[in-house]
Amino acid sequence: MKNTLLSLLLVISIQCLAQTSDDAYTRYELLDPSTQSFRIVYDVTSTAVGSTFYYNTLRKGSEHKVDGVIDMMTGKNLEWSIVNGVDAKKAGYAEAQNDVDYLKIKLARPITSGVEYRLKIDKTYKDPKSYFTDGDKIVLDRPLGIKRNSIVLPKGYELIQCNYPSQVMLEPDGRIKISFLNVGSAEVPLHLEGRKLPASANLNVAKETPASSAVGQGRNKSKARLDYSFSERAYQTREIVYFLQQPETHAFRLYHDYTETREGIDRYLNVVRAGSKASNPSAKILDTGKELKVETLKGDAITQKGLDIGEPVTPETEVVVIWFDPVKKGESARLRIEETYADPNRYVLHKDELVFDRSLGRPFNTVILPEGWFLTANVIPAVVDLTSDGKISLYYVNGSPDELDVLIRGRRK
Predict the structure, then answer these.
(1) Whole-prediction pTM
(2) Burial degree of 146 (CB within 10 A; 0-12, 13-18, 19+)
(3) In this structure, which CATH number among 3.20.20.70, 2.60.40.1730, 3.40.1160.10, 2.130.10.10 belongs to the domain 236-412?
(4) Helical (H) or strand (E) element with 30
(5) Strand order in 101-106's β-sheet?
(6) What is the dotted CATH code of the domain comprising 18-126?
(7) Tell me: the pLDDT tens digits for 124-149?
């Protein structure tokens, strides 16, 4: 009887387990137009505590072929199978639709509290309704619900139309890539057109020393940025959340997430801004929950450690160093770093108003007002919402390489 009851409770818990995810990014590689096919490389983070499987929807109306699934932390292949919606629902995926197929992925370790699981799914779709030719043009016409996307044209094709604001860049192999962040809450009805280039078109990507990506007030706006290099904004997974404390303290608690992929790297350096003071730093590996060694160094202590922080070290320079095991080839590490900042110059109480004035450089930025305050002014457009405990939250998505000069004001209720 006891075993039967435990089994019943387990079945109920599995059936009630909702799938949640984060940090999704999709790369569409358009194949030869005659195939009407495109390769999809989909990065996604599974976040539902207790999950042992992840289900990826195989869109209706497409012929699908799965090429593999990789655990992004270890770089190893994962077991997978294709199941119909009925079987997916029986196995515990409550949102499954009966007439849809799903990629069922077995996770190598369960997701526990405070832990995330990063996956890379590689598949190919044939979809004549989404990818087709129209005269001398190729057309991708497809609604995209993921927030971070890129589309790579076949080699030898130019972009002639794109209906959503996007970055454009040359891939190392000479293909043209279009990339964007979806800043809204609805899916993007993407319409993109390309056209074959003449054989004489230069698609070589020259090797060059990357120029500084400094922008805004720090660059010389009277001159063109020659050899200026920039990264794909949509591919970046850096995000930050600010929890403003009462303004009299000038303090805010924050956490920021960062993924390290470079082989051999064993540290993360966070240079404290001039005028700010960092305290109570902590860090962990989000993939496993492992707590990391953190130390705060100042002035000569930075030089003595042999740390290159990318700028001259002065007696007032302060850096928070997070140490972790060196990243191995084919592996990666996702870090969550927490600390408290005090900044009496940029977070103040002025004429009974809270004022938070700070440049935010990441693609995804959230600022949460302190308990007991309401919003009266916000300069940069943001999505405003309530947190689970009733505080005002402002969410900024920045698709450009520039920083956002955020200015927020609030008053006591």
Answers:
(1) 0.88
(2) middle
(3) 2.60.40.1730
(4) strand 21-30
(5) 53-58, 101-106, 80-84
(6) 2.60.40.1730
(7) 999 999 999 999 999 999 999 999 99
